[in-house]
Design goal:
InterPro entries: C-type_lectin-like, C-type_lectin-like/link_sf, C-type_lectin/snaclec_domain, C-type_lectin_CS, CTDL_fold, Eosinophil_major_basic. Residues 41-154 form the C-type lectin domain. Keywords: Disulfide bond, Signal. By secondary structure, the protein is of the alpha+beta class. The chain has a domain at 60-98 and 119-154: Roll (Mannose-Binding Protein A, Chain A), CATH 3.10.100.10. The protein contains two helices and seven strands, in the order βαβαβββββ. The strands form two sheets. The chain has a four-stranded antiparallel sheet. A three-stranded antiparallel sheet has the order 1-7-2, sandwiched between helices. The radius of gyration is 14 Å and the shape is globular.
Length: 155
């Protein structure tokens, strides 16, 4: 399990002043500073990024992955974290795709799929989709992976 979280709102190589660097506090969230309701960080890039850019950003900058969720308590923790920094639903690390003729959801970090909090009619079983966590109701929704959104890294 990854001990720390980061709500990333700044991209394109801009690292916010609150970059956690050095010490990591197990079980504590270390969000970046952001501007509520907007993807760009106040002093960062000109736009947010679609998945898979956040996946690479989490790996390259924080040596982590997009967040995986394995309990209702963790889901609520991430929802509260996201809500304090944005009104947009951020990316989490779930992907839904068709494998061997069957639709399945999986975590990008390869952890077990042992919890889900899908909104009604989700996940979508039409094309491969990525997943957002609603800041409003905490439910997960399938979205096309090219949408520009903030995202949550765990590291």
């Amino acid at each position: 399990m990854w001990p720390c979280l980061l709500l990333a709102l700044a991209l394109l190589g801009a690292v916010p002043a609150s970059h956690p660097g050095g010490t990591r506090m197990p079980g504590r969230a270390r969000p970046t500073a952001g501007t509520a309701g907007r993807c760009p960080w106040a002093q960062g890039s000109a736009r947010c990024q679609p998945v898979p850019v956040p996946q690479r950003y989490c790996q390259d900058v924080y040596r982590g992955q997009l967040a995986s969720v394995h309990s209702a308590a963790r889901n609520q923790e991430l929802q509260k974290l996201a809500r304090t920094h944005t009104i947009l639903a951020p990316w989490i690390g779930a992907v839904t795709s068709c494998r061997a003729g069957q639709w399945e959801s999986r975590w990008e970090d390869s952890s077990p799929w042992n919890y889900a909090n899908w909104a009604p009619i989700h996940p979508s079983h039409i094309v491969t989709t990525c997943t957002t966590l609603s800041t409003r109701d905490g439910l997960w929704r399938s979205r096309f992976c090219f949408q520009l959104r903030p995202f949550i890294c765990q590291y």
